[in-house]
C-alpha cells in the first residue's frame, strides 16, 4: 500500500484503555457463512468536544489511546461489502468526491485514505454488478458514490443497484434540495424494522441520529450475527458513554435510547458489531466490563486474503 495508507499508531497512555487507534485499511474477514470486507474511502480527524458537545476535555484523558498526539479523534469513512451464499451487497456508499477544503466546525482535517472505487477494484468487485446498496442513513459521508453527481454517469457508480432505505429517511431530506441518491424515485425501496432485504440481512430501526436511521443485522449462518450500526455510535468511547450525543443527532433523546439498545444487544453472546467510523476498530463486541473490545489476531475469524491488484 502507499505510504499514506500505513496505519498511524498512538503511544501507550498509562491508566487509559489500550485499544490504540489507526485510520482504516482494506480488510476481509469470514465468520461462519458470512464474509465481510471493509471498503475504505476517507479519513477524518475530529475535534472530540465538538463532536460530542456533552463531553469536556478532561473526560478524554481516559481515552487518549483513541486519539492522535495532537488530541484529535480519528474516524474512517467507507462502506461494508457483505457476502453470504449467493448474496453480495454493499452497506453505505462512502464519502464520495469531497475535497475536504471546507471543513465542518467539528473537523480538524479530512483526506481520502483511498477512494472507494479503487478499494472495490482491489477487492475484485465491479460496482456496476452490485444489485443492492443498503443505507444506514442519508448523510453525505454514507451516500457519497451513490449520489447523482458522484461520477459522470448520472446513474452513479452503482449503475443498476436498488437502494434500500429505512422508513422515515426519505422524509428527512429538506424540501427543495433535490434527490440524495441517483434515480432516487425509481430505484429506492423503503423498508420497515425487521424487513429481510436478502438472505440473512435484515433491517433494525435505530432512529435518532436521523429519523430513519437503520442498522443492518447480518446472519452468519451458524447462530451468530454482526450488526452494521452506521452512526448509532461514532467511536468506541460511546459504548462507555451512551449519554454523549453527537453534534449531528437530529433527536438527541431518541439517539441515546437507540445507543443504549445497541450496546445492550452487542453485549449478548454471539453478537458482534461493525462501526464504520471506528477508525481501525470497526469489528468488535461489548465485553463483560462494558467496553468495546476490538478484534485481535487471537480472535476466531477465518481471514481470507485480499486479492492482489
From TrEMBL:
Domain of life, source organism: Bacteria
SMART domains according to UniProt: Lactamase_B
Keyword Zinc in annotation: yes
Every Metallo-beta-lactamase domain range: 76-276
Signal peptide annotation: none
InterPro entries listed in its UniProt record: MBL_superfamily_lactonases, Metallo-B-lactamas, RibonucZ/Hydroxyglut_hydro
An example Gene Ontology molecular-function term: metal ion binding
Pfam families, per database record: Lactamase_B
Keywords assigned by UniProt, alphabetized: Hydrolase, Metal-binding, Zinc
Family designation: Belongs to the metallo-beta-lactamase superfamily.
Name of the featured protein: Metallo-beta-lactamase domain-containing protein
